[in-house]
Amino acid sequence: VKMKKKPLVINSDDFLKYPSVILKKICDKFDIPFDESMLHWKYGLQDSKLFFSGQLFPYSDIWYGGIKESTGFKPYDKKKSNLPEKFRAILDVCMPIYHKLLSSKFIVTI
Predict the structure, then answer these.
(1) Which residues neighbour 109 within 8 Å (Cβ) at sequence distance 6 or greater?
(2) Residue 85 above 80 pLDDT?
(3) How many Cα atoms are found within 13 Å in the side-chain-facing hemisphere of 67?
(4) 9 DSSP β-pair partners
(5) What is the distance between the terminal CA atoms of the chain, rounded to a whole angstrom?
(6) Do the beta carbons of residue 108 and residue 22 sit within 8 Å?
(7) CA dihedral (39, 41, 44, 46) positive or negative
(8) What would you report as the CA-atom Rg of the chain, rounded to the nearest whole angstrom?
(9) Residue 60 — pLDDT band, cuts 50, 70, 90?
(10) Does position 53 have pLDDT exceeding 60, yes or no?
């Protein structure tokens, strides 16, 4: 599939390692002013209750539970993947697509 515009591809490891750099890039891409307050939020996400309550997004507690327990980005901690063997075939199908996307990712420069 050919796209008219190149998407902003961000590796999640890069985002967790360099959140301010990545957020600044996202803001630049969408012409939004960056603010340091984007790197921190209130514990429990009181300001985002509708989204994170499951009313708009039913799996929010599963996917974003850790965010509700924090107030900002934590230091990067690489996790070891323990993919069950029954999902290996799906991973094998997805990896070429992942690598194609990864080849056009935003390069972090510090």
Answers:
(1) 21
(2) yes
(3) 17
(4) 105
(5) 32
(6) yes
(7) negative
(8) 17
(9) low
(10) no
